[in-house]
Design a protein that fits this description.
39 strands, 5-stranded mixed β-barrel, OB fold (Dihydrolipoamide Acetyltransferase, E2P), 10-stranded mixed sheet, telomerase inhibitor activity, globular, about 15% helix
């Protein structure tokens, strides 16, 4: 190999350098001499980024220092590396490494006078027969309780939680992994790389990882790990007694004998300290409303629509429930037709959504997968008398949702392959034939079955809450009628936007009718950090209507935090009835306070009074909800106005009352969606503008409540089932009102849904 890693065992190279090569000192590297059988050894003191020359050739420049002649005025030389060798070296060479170079061409250096290095440089490439030997360094590993902000470290850890790689908002893949070790400290690492194979190959909780050159930073009082230049990883099976074989896509890595002992010790520790709850992993054991991981083989796949993709998989066992078959055109289904036919009673259709679609498209048929956090749901919305079990991999990465590709060397894959080869396909088909006869006997003839399907498909999935006197109007009539008017209609939801449901939540000002995006936590944290620069004004502490306490944090920043407890009748109240005002707190600290106290208001000191932060930040936090004010319509008043609420007989500390006395025009959380409705006579785009009535879910709580997010997702899947043909979609009954929008150049009619709610039994 042109680039090799050399291990040192008992003071000698484990793999000796070719015997015909002789060491050459730096001072003897001169033009006009034969260096064919010579090598130069030095330490990397500088390594430039890998670049490309104008012709597209990879190029890497490294500076080696002669360790045998450190006292000389010139003791370093430039190494110019070209082609694939440059690419390989960039992956392994690091500052401080010892390298041996041979098979080089010596040439005059045009930069010697400028950089003060040797008059010549060494040119190397694989084509020229060059070789580079990198001496594997002795790495030092840091335990998780000794990590410090701003350092780059090497570490070992046991996987407590992970998210399989997914496509980030940019072009990179991202993976999140939480590690623990015997120090009982937890570290969450966020890893990015444009190459999927470069991320850790983690398959399950309990795996052991080795991270080299991971950057540590402190965020909200906790250490976090992020990828840095030169980041590399190895993953090992965490099972006690399993072979210690590293998983990595890199062909060049070091692994010392003493590291094997570290892994064995971590395995034993994890076996007694890490709780690994294995979800159901066989199709024969699944039930409705279950989230589980599945190890399986991919035998078919197909595009369903822009936001969902079908995977046909099997694990050799048979699901105990009738399963939903996603309707797709035969020409769109990839897979060996004969095999799909043979396995038709053992495969299940898994519908994957959103961020998982890109990875699902790239999967190779026949590959072995581990699909994490599959959701099963029993449904009969397609008109069948017998409900069928649906399998969904929802969008997002909550609870570790994702898809992992397992190599055939994986022990679980070996076990699965052996089992699949033993499956009696003929026997499973006979069993299915018997169950089909039983099902067909439910109806006396085909006509009865068709009538039954029609009746089920006509059941509405929405409820009208008013205006029962209105009759249904066809969409064609609505589209040809002037606005404004109100209508009752019966239609099907063909599509909706946004497909990523969390994007439907906006902030609305009822006064100026403006809409804005909900700020994310990082924006709020940035504002808090800015306000913490100014220390609290102690002259404003402990007034007639609030008591104050202040302390200094013990970290390097020595941050001062002040908390002002609002009193009632000159007395402090119970925490669940108390409003706090906080100065200098971090986002994490404020969230902790909201879990214990009624309300929290972030403030800062001025010379004369406390005041609210910029209205880009919430003016109030209550429970998990952040309350924002409209910048355009608000006229903030002094904080001391809160004393009027504190003086009430029973202060309620309601957000609307707090906003009023502080001169804030509150923004309300609202769902904004566009529904495309069809009824056979036409298609109409109707807007949903709803605070909580339609979904029976408060828009203010959806972003912080995973259960409500799943409920909304399941609701939309019921209203507009993915993968269904138009004829199979359920009917919606709703009220819409038309209204005119005019400007200087055009006039348009818009439609809005109102007085309609989702039926309680839809989800």
């Amino acid at each position: 190999m042109p680039v090799q890693l050399l291990k040192i065992v008992k003071g000698k190279f484990e793999t000796p350098i070719p015997s015909h090569l002789q060491n050459e000192d730096l001072k003897h590297l001169q033009e006009g001499f034969d260096h064919t059988n010579k090598y130069f050894q030095g330490m990397v003191i500088l390594s430039y980024p890998l670049t490309k020359l104008e012709d597209g050739t990879d190029f890497l420049k490294v500076v080696l220092q002669d360790l045998n002649d450190l006292c000389s005025r010139i003791n370093s030389i430039n190494i110019l590396i070209y082609g694939k060798m440059a690419e390989d070296c960039a992956k392994v060479i690091r500052h401080g490494d010892t390298c041996i170079v041979a098979g080089f061409k010596l040439a005059k250096s045009p930069t010697a006078r400028e950089d003060g290095r040797h008059d010549c440089h060494l040119e190397m490439s694989e084509e020229a027969g060059s070789a580079i030997y990198c001496v594997a360094p002795k790495y030092v590993y840091t335990s998780l309780n000794n990590l410090k902000d701003g350092t780059i470290v090497n570490l070992y850890g046991v996987v407590k939680f992970f998210k399989p790689p997914y496509v980030s908002k940019g072009t990179d893949y991202c993976s999140v992994v939480t590690l623990v070790d015997p120090s009982n400290v937890k570290l969450t690492c966020t890893l990015f790389n444009g190459n999927l194979d470069a991320l850790p190959k983690i398959y399950k909780v309990g795996d052991i990882v080795r991270f080299h050159r991971i950057k540590i930073r402190e965020y909200n009082g906790q250490m976090q790990g992020v990828t840095s230049g030169g980041f590399a990883s190895l993953t090992f099976d965490g099972t006690v007694g399993a072979p210690i074989v590293p998983r990595t896509s890199s062909k060049m890595y070091s692994f010392m004998n003493d590291e094997q002992k570290m892994i064995e010790e971590l395995r034993i520790w994890a076996a007694s300290h890490l709780s690994v709850s294995e979800p159901v992993a066989k199709l024969s054991g699944v039930q409705p409303m279950l989230f589980f991981d599945l190890t399986c083989q991919l035998v078919g796949k197909a595009k369903v629509d822009g936001s969902s993709f079908l995977l046909k998989v099997w694990d050799g066992t048979k699901c105990p429930y009738p399963t939903w078959k996603v309707p797709v055109e035969e020409r769109d289904l990839e897979g060996e037709k004969l095999l799909l036919h043979q396995l038709r009673h053992l495969t299940v259709d898994i519908l994957v959504y959103d961020n998982h679609v890109q990875l699902a498209k790239s999967l190779k048929l026949g590959s072995f997968l581990r699909i994490y956090s599959i959701h099963t749901k029993q449904a009969s919305g397609d008109g069948e008398d017998v409900s069928r079990l649906e399998f969904h991999l929802h969008g997002g990465t909550c609870y570790g949702r994702g898809i992992g590709v397992l190599p055939e060397s994986n022990p679980d894959v070996k076990e699965l392959k052996t089992f699949l080869e033993s499956v009696d396909l003929a026997g499973s088909q006979n069993m299915e034939s018997m169950s089909s006869v039983e099902f067909d006997g439910t109806f006396s003839n085909v006509t009865d079955l068709e009538l039954h399907l029609q009746r089920i498909q006509q059941l509405p999935v929405t409820v009208l809450t008013d205006h029962q006197d209105l009759n249904n109007t066809e969409l064609k009539t609505i589209l040809n009628s002037p606005a404004p008017q109100q209508y009752r209609l019966r239609a099907k939801l063909r599509t909706y936007k946004p497909q990523k449901l969390y994007q439907s939540v906006k902030l609305h000002c009822s006064k100026c009718n403006s809409l804005q995006e909900v700020p994310d936590g990082e924006d709020f944290d940035f504002i808090l950090q800015g306000s913490a620069v100014t220390a609290p004004n102690t002259e404003l502490h402990s007034t007639s209507w609030y008591d104050s306490v202040m302390w200094t944090t013990q970290d390097q920043k020595q941050r001062k935090i002040a908390i002002h407890f609002v009193k009632h009748d000159e007395m402090l109240q119970q925490p669940e009835d108390t409003l706090l005002m906080v100065e200098g707190g971090t986002l994490k600290e404020i969230w902790k306070l909201t879990k214990r106290f009624k309300c929290v208001i972030p403030v800062r000191s001025t010379e004369d009074d406390l005041e609210l932060l910029d209205l880009s930040a919430p003016f109030l936090l209550q429970g998990n909800i952040k309350y924002y004010g409209c910048k355009q319509c608000s006229t903030p008043k002094p904080i001391k106005n809160l004393s009027s609420i504190a003086a009430e007989q029973q202060p309620s500390w309601e957000p609307t009352e707090i906003a009023q006395v502080l001169g804030i025009e509150p923004l309300q959380y609202v769902f904004i969606m566009k529904f495309t409705l069809v009824d056979g006579t036409g298609a109409l785009n109707a807007y949903l503008f709803d605070y909580e009535k339609f979904f029976q879910i408060p828009a203010s709580e959806i972003l912080t409540n995973n259960f409500l997010q799943q409920k909304m997702e399941m609701t939309m899947n019921a209203l507009c089932p993915p993968g269904r043909k138009l004829d199979d979609l359920p009917w919606l009954e709703c009220f819409i009102k038309s209204y005119n929008v005019r400007d200087a150049t055009k006039h348009q009619v818009y439609y809005q849904i109102f007085d309609t709610t989702v039926a309680e039994d839809v989800v």
